[in-house]
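Hi D.,

Good news: the full-assembly prediction came through. Inputs first.
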Amino acid sequence: GQSLEQPSEVTAVEGAIVQINCTYQTSGFYGLSWYQQHDGGAPTFLSYNGLDGLEETGRFSSFLSRSDSYGYLLLQELQMKDSASYFCALCGYSTLTFGKGTMLLVSP
Amino acid sequence: KAGVTQTPRYLIKTRGQQVTLSCSPISGHRSVSWYQQTPGQGLQFLFEYFSETQRNKGNFPGRFSGRQFSNSRSEMNVSTLELGDSALYLCASSEGLGTEAFFGQGTRLTVV
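Then the structure:
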């Protein structure tokens, strides 16, 4: 089967940089995605890594290393609105397998 | 372009009843997936449909079923409801393989 591990909670202050790590076990996958979910809201797509390396989208960057079974999401210039849960997900043929999520708390 | 629409948003059912949830994907998206989200188990994959065919199914009992219509709209059904079925049921649509999935707001099901 597939499994993903990510920290349950991360705290940071406004303006700081935070990194959310994700390690995984799988026999095969197409890529690693990241989703953001605010309390009571729908998960929204943030980033996708199909190849090893860094992908940058504005304040968010995501990294994948297949050899290390590891990825991370980097959030820069944190804002209060970034307080949310962040999920890494393994992208399969027709499925997404999600980690349990990391709750990010941004304080002033 | 309209997003993914799920109806109803909230539902309260009694143990033993059955329920049908509906999902209208983004126009042009042929893949529809369903997920169950609970505080303890997180987001768990239920099944995925593409062009009316179920391509993949998660590890859920047979009480959970679904279908997709020719217009890509999808329904999922849960029969003989149990208290443990209380959850947020999320539908996601995409153009197909991998990458970006667009989620609806979900249906919050409470079984009493």
